[in-house]
Structure formats: structure tokens, C-alpha cells
């Protein structure tokens, strides 16, 4: 069967293949097999669209081929091909097929014979690349040539994007990078890194449709936005629904960012290799990355993104290590001196107190004033106590002379917390009075009237002074009053009109160490907040837990 008959079965759009086959006599032996293989490659290849970015999925060790030809009538025309690997390195080649020269054969004026050398000269590889960088090939094409692109992944299944254009005069799909595409680190702090980069020429031409996006992670730099997207997806993290297929900030407004919680528009993703964060900042070319961890190496990539086409170009990535967190300031504790510590709940940092023992037995006292606090005590570097504080807490520790104790305090809630701390020898005069088993105030519902309420509280075996205060409040003030109460503050900060009475009492039998008090002169159907203060020998008060009681509306 002559090769000219085989050409009848090729698709009509295989322009160059038709040229190659026209009036050609079948080559013999090895040249015939080589030429038929080339034609088979064309026949089982896909046409590559001109002017459109094409996503191609590659299976491991299975090559994929695409071809393109130019329109008739264009003898020489420029073209460019941009290939973006989205994961592992790939191999890709550009092959060109040219028609053979005509050569008359004696005795046969209707056919031409193609020699083995002619077949070899018809096929040539004009470009080869292996790697995971974004590569662009630019060349001049003849209408009598057909181009074949071969793609191969030898590591694993992956995908790439390919962009072919023969119109190099009316602009580019991808935004332009500046002559110097490097990112400069101009400032490093404990939790921040400041970056700057040169403007893309595309920003000046298409300001409304172009913006910069920054990707921050703790693993490595990414050479393209689709490579970053693939890495995050392969880590098992789910992307937000609106960005299920791409990390590109398509249709997002400048200055907006996105996170998984959707509470703000910044992509902050937790993956196994650390945090991945993306921020889009419009056309600003300087940005300070906040809220980083101290003493941590971060990698920074900037992408210039065309919001209309979703195409992007990558600057040359950089990296920086944040500064080590400074040693926390340590406050010295002195025998018997009370230190009032206020902790910032938002920063979640430790506040450190140091005490050098002048006696073997040491007594630490903590009075929680507001919020929730965690205390951690070490002696010469070894932990001796660690727990959450509640109310008043004592730690009696036994060690050696000149032992060094370090007390670290941290708020365990977002709001501010405060605590009073005292360190003293074991025999030192106690700072706080002897406390009852409970600091709760009890009210008796059956003893309530329109004008009075009866409350009770526990006392101790030690004669002490107790003062009762009352405050009229509204229904919507209850939660705020109870939450904001400073359990370390004494009655000196309260108006004299709120004071009800002061009394002394004790009982050696703890079962009978209970006192009651009926507060009269109240208004019907009204809410009152009652407080009891206990004063010990040192004069420092301990406040019982506030109690809210409502008088009867009708009697």
C-alpha cells in the first residue's frame, strides 16, 4: 500500500502531514518504519489552542503530545510557548517537521522517493527542558512547518499549564515582570518581616485589573502560583469553597484577604509543614508581614496577578528568619513585699518574677484579682509547681539556702487578668487572713421580703472583721458586674453610701462558724449586689464572691 493512500485517512487539519504525504512512495525497511511512527505521533496528538492557556494532566511515564500549525499565507511569523509545571519537574520538547525537497525518480514521474537521510532531516528538536521552573520559548515559524510538543513526568502524576500565542504584538496573557524581579527584605523583627519589590510594567498599564499577592510559608519557595496551590492541596488541607480550584485572588477586591474561617479575607492555612498565608495588597509594592513566630525561617513569594484572565507571574522568591524573642523581663521579689501583676490576655506572654531564698522554707501567696491565670514555679530550673489559679492560693516549698525560684504567670483568657503575689520565709507574718472553706455568700429565699433580704457567710476560728456592702443594679448589669469585679480591691474604692455594716466574729468550732445578717431599708422588686470583705491582721482584705438578690415585688 502506497503512503499516498494512507494520507487519505488523516484529519484535514493536519496540514503539514498532508504535505509530507503528497505523492510520496512508501520508504523501505527502517526508513519506512521511522516515517510511519512520526505520522502515528501526529495522528494521536491533540491540537494546541492558540491564544488560550491549556491545562494538561500527565500520568507518570506516559508522554503526551500536542501540535500546532500556522495559518496559510504566513511565511514567517513569531510565536511563543510558555509551560508552567504545577508540581514536580517535567521533561518537555519542541519538535519541528518540515516538508522534504522534491527529487525526480527515473521511470516514475508521478511519485517521489524519500530516502532515509531525507526522513531524518525532516524532523528536528529545537528546544528541550527538564525542571519545574516556568519556561518560555520564542521562535519564528514557517507555514510549511508543523510543531509537536512532547510532555513527560517521570516522578508522579501531575499537571501543567501551556500557553501558545502567535500574536506577540497585542499584549501578553501573563503580567510582565520588571527587569529585576527580586524581592528585597528591608526589615526584620521578632514577629514581622518587611518586604519590597520593583513594580511590574503591567501595573502602570492595567492598574485596575492587576494586583500583587504575597505567599508566606515555612517550607520553601514556589516558582508559580499553581505550584503553591498543588502543594497546599496535597497536604490534605481543604481550600475555601470560593478558591476550591485556585489560590489566585480572582475577583477579590484590593486590600482584601481570605482565611478558612471566612471572618476576614486572608488565606491563612495550617498544614503539616507549618502555616501557609496569602495576602493580596492591590498595587502596593511594600508590605510588612505581621503575626509571625519569633526565631522562625519563612519563605516569601510575590505573584503579579491579572484579575481578568487569572494568569500570574512569579517574582524571584526570598526567605528571612525572624529575630529571637527577647528574654522576658524578670522582676525581683523581696521578702514580704506584695507585687501586683497585670497580664495582657491578647499577647499570651509570660510575666516572670524571681526570688532568692534566704531560708530553707519559702511561702508563696497568690491572690487572683481578675480573669484566669496559670502559674509555673521552678527552683534552680526544675519545676516544683504548676497549676491554674483560683481565688487565694498558697504554696509552701522547702529547699536550700540561696535557692533561686522563678515564678512565671500567664493569662489563660483573651481579656486582661491580674494577680497579687507575695514571697516570704515560712515563719513570716501572713499577708492574708485565715480563710474559710468557702467564700460564697448564701441568701435565703424564704426570708426575702419587699424591704429586706437575709444573707449568710462562713467565718473562721480566728477573730476577724467583716464588712458588708450593697449596690443597686439593673437586670442588664448583672453579667458585667460579676465579670468585671476586682477580687483584690478593697472597700476603700466604694462610695460610703454602699456600706451596710462591719462586725467581728469567730468560732473555734468550724461547724458553727457561720454568721447571718438581715439587710433592711431596701426597695420592693429591686436587684441588689451584695459584697462581704474579710480583714486579717495585716489589714489586706479578701473579697467574698458577689451575690445578686432581688427583693419581693409584692408582700
UniProtKB/TrEMBL annotation:
<dbReference type="Pfam" id="PF24354">
    <property type="entry name" value="NDNF_N"/>
</dbReference>
<dbReference type="InterPro" id="IPR013783">
    <property type="entry name" value="Ig-like_fold"/>
</dbReference>
<feature type="signal peptide">
    <location>
        <begin position="1"/>
        <end position="21"/>
    </location>
</feature>
<keyword id="KW-0732">Signal</keyword>
<dbReference type="InterPro" id="IPR019326">
    <property type="entry name" value="NDNF"/>
</dbReference>
<keyword id="KW-0325">Glycoprotein</keyword>
<dbReference type="InterPro" id="IPR036116">
    <property type="entry name" value="FN3_sf"/>
</dbReference>
<dbReference type="InterPro" id="IPR056225">
    <property type="entry name" value="NDNF_N"/>
</dbReference>
<dbReference type="InterPro" id="IPR045805">
    <property type="entry name" value="NDNF_C"/>
</dbReference>
<protein>
    <recommendedName>
        <fullName>Protein NDNF</fullName>
    </recommendedName>
</protein>
<dbReference type="InterPro" id="IPR003961">
    <property type="entry name" value="FN3_dom"/>
</dbReference>
<keyword id="KW-0964">Secreted</keyword>
<dbReference type="GO" id="GO:0007399">
    <property type="term" value="P:nervous system development"/>
</dbReference>
<dbReference type="InterPro" id="IPR055271">
    <property type="entry name" value="NDNF_Fn(III)_1"/>
</dbReference>
<feature type="domain" description="Fibronectin type-III">
    <location>
        <begin position="433"/>
        <end position="541"/>
    </location>
</feature>
<dbReference type="Pfam" id="PF19433">
    <property type="entry name" value="NDNF_C"/>
</dbReference>
<dbReference type="GO" id="GO:0008201">
    <property type="term" value="F:heparin binding"/>
</dbReference>
<keyword id="KW-0677">Repeat</keyword>
<feature type="domain" description="Fibronectin type-III">
    <location>
        <begin position="175"/>
        <end position="312"/>
    </location>
</feature>
<dbReference type="Pfam" id="PF10179">
    <property type="entry name" value="NDNF"/>
</dbReference>
<dbReference type="GO" id="GO:0005576">
    <property type="term" value="C:extracellular region"/>
</dbReference>
<comment type="function">
    <text>Secretory protein that plays a role in various cellular processes. Acts as a chemorepellent acting on gonadotropin-releasing hormone (GnRH) expressing neurons regulating their migration to the hypothalamus. Also promotes neuron migration, growth and survival as well as neurite outgrowth and is involved in the development of the olfactory system. May also act through the regulation of growth factors activity and downstream signaling. Also regulates extracellular matrix assembly and cell adhesiveness.</text>
</comment>
<keyword id="KW-0524">Neurogenesis</keyword>
